[in-house]
Amino acid sequence: MSEEWRIFAAYVVAGGIILSLLFIFVIVTTGFRYTVLIEAWVEAGPDLVGISDMASLLNFSRQNMRKLIQTHLASFPLPVHEGASALWHLVDVLTWFSETQRRAIPTDLMGVAGVSMGVNLVREVRRVDHQLQAQLDSIA
């Protein structure tokens, strides 16, 4: 029996949301049976954004975006990840700009960012062990 694995990523646009899918093809040749497709969903976007992404979406320079974040550290949304490059949920950033900076944000962009974040959070929650999830629910 021989097996061949093919892995590649595909990006699908559905209603403005970019779904990043990871396809793993397992081809097993046993008599007349072959080709099993396993599909794993990686992420929906736009959701997580860095400074350059925010600047591009809001028509700022990267430097101006960074300065704006530094100037408003107390009120700017906290990053989801902080390392070499910080990442924020786009919907949080857009909401902050809309409410704090009184900047007009297209409703379709706000909607897509919100749905993308929700879809990704649901996917992440499903990965949590059910016993651990029950314990966390009792704490919260």
Descriptive report:
With about 140 residues, this protein is of the alpha+beta class. The chain folds into two domains: about 45 residues; about 80 residues, no CATH class. Helices cover about 40% and strands about 25% of the residues. It contains five helices and five strands, in the order ββββααβααα. The strands form two sheets. The chain has a three-stranded antiparallel beta sheet. Strands 4-5 form a two-stranded antiparallel sheet. Helix 3 runs antiparallel to helix 4. The protein is globular and about 45 Å long. The chain starts with a strand and ends with a helix. About 10% of the residues are buried. The N terminus is likely disordered. It comes from Marinobacter adhaerens. Keywords: Membrane, Transmembrane, Transmembrane helix. This is Prophage CP4-57 regulatory.
Please name the defining characteristics of this protein.
single chain; 2 domains; 3-stranded antiparallel β-sheet; transmembrane; disordered N terminus; two-stranded antiparallel sheet; alpha+beta; 140 residues
